[in-house]
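Researcher: I'm preparing a figure for a lab meeting and need a structural model of a single chain. I don't have an experimental structure, so a prediction will have to do for now. The sequence is pasted below. Please return the structure as C-alpha cells so I can convert it later.
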Amino acid sequence: MDTEILADLVRMEMPFGKYKGRVLADLPEPYLVWFAGQGFPAGKLGERMALIYEIKLNGLESLLDPLRNR
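Model: Understood. Here is the structure written out cell by cell.
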C-alpha cells in the first residue's frame, strides 16, 4: 500500500454533502456504507472513499494513527 494514498485519507476533505469539510478518515461508517450501496463518486475521491470504507469495515483505522500525527 502506498503511504501517500493512506496519507490522503487523513488530509483530503469531503468536498460536498452533509460532511463537507470533514477529512475522509473521519467520515462516519454509516455514510460510507450508504455510498457503497449507491456507488462511490468517480475519480480519486471515490477511490479514497472506497478505501476508507474497507479500512473501517475491517477495523483497521489504527493504521492511520501514525499519519494523523505527522
